[in-house]
Amino acid sequence: MKSLLSALFLIAAGLSLTSSAQAPAAAPGAPANAAPAKSGAVVGVAVVGTFDRSSIVLAYYRSPLWEAILADRRFELKTVKAANDTARATELEKYGGESQDLAMRQLAGKAPIDNIVAVLQPEIKELTARLKLSGVVDSSTADPKAPSVEVTPLLLDWLKATAETRKMAAEMHGRTGN
């Protein structure tokens, strides 16, 4: 629970739209290697890629990609405030609070992660093609009897998850590494 609270705090700290405006950061690149399929996988049988939901939520909200989105919003907020566009400034400030609430609910497993999956689509498509997967899904929704391959580390690579983020994700699950 302490790790979950720490993760929520770190996400909340990164979501503030009131920090200084800056130019947006570059988008993340693609990872290199795949995790091996679970034992028992049969050649010619559809294999699904699975990811750990909470690890991906944590990594997304701590990623350079999310920071770039926030930087865009902070830059726009500074610009609209300078232009006295109070209506747009109010919308942007509301976005900050709503984003923070959504991130916390997603990390707690109480909100869908459609926004994150949408951002991951280019990498999910690449992994599906490269690893010849039938699809990529949240591991909690995958059929435990079906052949699967763990793609969480590859998605963490794409999100440019730091060692600290990976450690936090592992600690949320009582593991020593991810």
The tally of strands reads: 3
**Lateral strand order in the biggest sheet:** 2-1-3
Helix content: 40-55%
SSE string, helix = H, strand = E?
HEHHHHEEHH
Derived structural class = mainly alpha
Largest sheet: 3 strands, parallel
Q: Residue-averaged pLDDT, rounded?
A: 81
Per DSSP, the total helix count is 7
Q: Termini, distance in Å?
A: 18 Å
Q: What Rg is obtained from the alpha carbons, in whole angstroms?
A: 18 Å
Number of domains: 1
Question: Would you give an account of this structure?
Answer:
This protein has 178 residues and is mostly helical. It has one domain. A three-stranded parallel sheet has the order 2-1-3. α1 packs antiparallel against α4, α2 runs antiparallel to α7 and α3 runs antiparallel to α4.
Write the layout of secondary structure elements.
Layout: H1 2-14, E1 48-51, H2 53-61, H3 64-82, H4 86-107, H5 114-130, E2 135-138, E3 148-150, H6 152-158, H7 163-172
Parallel strand pairs: 1-2, 1-3
Q: Which tags fit this structure?
A:
single chain; 178 residues; mainly alpha; three-stranded parallel sheet; 7 helices; 3 strands; 54% helix; elongated; disordered N terminus
TL;DR of this structure?
By secondary structure, this protein is mainly alpha-helical.
